[in-house]
Specification:
The protein is mostly helical. The chain has seven helices and five strands. It has a three-stranded antiparallel β-sheet with strand order 3-5-4.
């Protein structure tokens, strides 16, 4: 067990009593989780603004424009049943954002390919999603640089 450290100042919030490394990591994770769950509302709203449900938007963002993926591989990657992939692809296909194609290596396998419209919508969605929210814009440059530095260490 690691010994307790002096209470760090976390952006004006000091953890008391002095926290261990594990307690600090737990507090950091709790705060990251809170931020992530708050962003879910933003994601749902963004999906609706592009005429998609959250699942379809996530699927659109996860499809690789350069590598058509077999439906079975998508089910594995998305940790869902193949019927869910079929439903999501049906929705995207109805909007002409993806199309099913026969695999070049196995005619029995269908792959999912983003259409030009799908690539364009995906780019628009990414631009929208990557705009910094007001909470981040309020931080000064030093805090933003520290945040980017820390997040880059754990985002691997």
């Amino acid at each position: 067990m690691k010994e307790a450290r002096a209470a760090p100042n976390l952006g004006g919030v000091t953890l008391l009593p002095p926290a261990t490394h594990e307690e600090l990591a737990g507090e950091a994770w709790r705060r990251l989780t809170e931020v992530t769950f708050r962003q879910r509302r933003f994601f749902v709203t963004a999906a609706a603004s592009f005429g998609l449900n959250p699942g379809s938007l996530k699927a659109l963002l996860e499809l690789d424009p350069d590598n058509p993926a077999p439906m079975r591989a998508l089910a594995e990657a998305w940790h869902c049943d193949a019927s869910n992939v079929t439903w999501l692809v049906d929705q995207l296909e109805a909007r002409n954002l993806v199309e099913r194609r026969v695999s070049t290596t196995d005619r029995r396998v269908k792959t999912v390919v983003l259409t030009d419209a799908g690539v364009a919508l995906r780019a628009s969605v990414e631009t929208h999603l990557h705009q910094a929210p007001e909470d981040l814009l309020k931080l000064d440059d030093a805090d933003l640089a520290a945040l980017v530095n820390v997040l880059s260490k754990i985002a691997k």
